[in-house]
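Help! Submission page says 'invalid entity' but I think these are all valid:
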Amino acid sequence: MSERKTSSVDKEGPTALERFINGVLPENPIYRQLLGMCPTLAVTNAMKPAVTMAAATAFVLICSNIMVSLIRGLLKPHLRILVFTLTIATFVTIADRVLAAYVYDMSKQLGPYVPLIIVNCVIISRAEICASKQGIGAATADGIGMSLGFGIGLASIATVRELLGSGTWFGLHVLPATWPNWGIMVLPPGAFLTLGLLLAIVEWGTRRRAASAIWRTVRMLWSWRH
Amino acid sequence: METLIGVVLIFIGAALINNFVLHYFVGICPFLGVSRRVDTAFGMGCAVTFVISISTMLNWAFTSFMLRPGAPLPAWVWRTAGGNPQTQLDLSVLSYIIYIFVIASSVQFVEMYVRKFFPPLYKSFGVFLPLITTNCAILFASLEVLKHMQDPTNLWGLPQALTLALGGGVGFTLAISLMAGIREELDLCDVPRPLQGAGIALIVAGIMAMAFMGFTGVDKGVETALSSLLR
């Protein structure tokens, strides 16, 4: 029934590879789009919770992208946001139960931020922009790319905060024992300050064309389209 | 008296000490996005306070009668259907889906109601209402209430739940209005180019969070003052 309609939509959007690359750097959800700020700031006081949160978000994002892409022919325009939200809520419940069953301490530490993945703007914006318009391949690639970009963002903030705040990385002592732990970095204000400064650094780095080789590679890949 | 002191402490805790935005980081998206002018920021804050109170009240009812361990409604259905009355039922696995459904539909209803009966109010904050569905602060308040509904010996009643929601909403309004005031002044400043926009806003928020850390311990003082006053 919906075969003809969806295939005509599929031709227009970017390909799976473009979607994947797009999510990692050029449209990084944290540094470029400023989405999903709540977990970004709340769980990045150390690497372990940040990585757990990135994994849980990746699971929900990929699953919901696949699910929404599969049912895209059935969506009604005025009800689609509600359908997206309920799909996401189902996968978040699964992720929450799995975390509580296998890594109970981490689940306790993350607390309300696991259920708050439901209202993470990254996931709902991907469902709206990509999954509800494209086929399952592009939607999956988009989900993986976006989760990778989100994970990189979380890990970079958590690295700075954990190193400066407690002198450790993944719980291992990295800095010498004489390092005076900057207590403010693991407290809420540190999250705002770190993200603000990292955003400025990313902005500064991307402004200078020759600044990074990574950026040049990405631009090269990007120019294949044209 | 105990309840009154508890309610006051919940309010101070949600509005100042553990401010929703600056301590729990919920509602950051509107905090950064809709804080360019004081009047729009205040409108957004009022809309959030309004919706958060209504949806937390509804979600409290759902939690209390349906979702918490040992809730009356599923137990009654279970017994009527001929189940063993000794069985302990716990439907809390459904709570996230029901919460988000209640929030999404209550936002819809509030929008329709306000548009029909209070057109001036709709003009002033109607545009923000659809945005609120994906505001973490609303869901966060319901989740906090759920956390206090797990232990059957110390359940939160409607006053506590409503106070938490109101306190959270007032705290959000306070934070976003202060932020908008600072950002209006910032427009006149010479900010380095890479920091312009979100960067400087986040750093200002960090300094505000440090200032709000100064409220730590206020609850102890208020508790002693209130208990000596009311004794």
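Support: the input was valid. A stray whitespace character was the problem, and the output above is from the cleaned input. The interface with chain A takes residues 22-29, 32, 93-94, 96-97, 100-101, 104, 133-136, 139-140, 143-144, 147, 192-195, 198-203, 205-207, 209-210, 213 of chain B (CB under 8 Å).
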